[in-house]
Design a protein that fits this description.
about 30% strand, alpha+beta, Alpha-Beta Plaits, globular, two-stranded antiparallel sheet, four-stranded antiparallel sheet, 4 helices, 2 domains
């Protein structure tokens, strides 16, 4: 009857093979086994995301300057593990054209980023460029 994989095969009287698949029982929804132990060892990280809708008069050079300031600031603050800046690839209405994201080791690291003197200058620069923005933090 051939190789058995995830199920069993039964030969019918007509000579046709029917594969009866037995699915493993699915555990209650929750983290994969072992995840809770790993999560207890690793402190929660914070992901900070900003979506930006540019004003009509904002050009690529201004956006590149803001990007450089943003990435430069992220590299100055201990506890910021990564930072990203780019164009939104949203295809449904393109409400926000720009996106920025950074990952902080802790809430304290994100607070230090927000309190950094260069952050006030960056916020002033970006505020002059955006029609509106949305920002959010997520704990992982």
């Amino acid at each position: 009857m051939g190789r058995r994989s995830s199920g069993t095969a039964t030969r019918m009287a007509t000579g046709t093979s029917v594969r009866r698949i037995t699915y493993p029982k699915i555990a209650a929804i929750g983290p994969p086994q072992g995840l809770t132990e790993r999560a207890a060892v690793r402190p929660a990280m914070i992901v900070h995301v900003v979506l930006m809708q540019w004003k009509d008069r904002v050009g690529p050079l201004e956006i590149e300057r803001a990007k450089a300031a943003y990435l430069g600031l992220a590299s100055k603050v201990p506890g910021i593990t990564s930072a990203y800046w780019g164009r939104s690839t949203e295809r449904r209405g393109a409400k926000f054209q720009g996106m920025a994201m950074l990952v902080a080791e802790s809430r304290a690291a994100l607070d230090a980023y927000n309190a950094h003197p260069d952050h006030a200058a960056l916020a002033k620069m970006v505020d002059a460029m955006v029609r509106k923005f949305v920002d959010a933090d997520m704990e992982t």
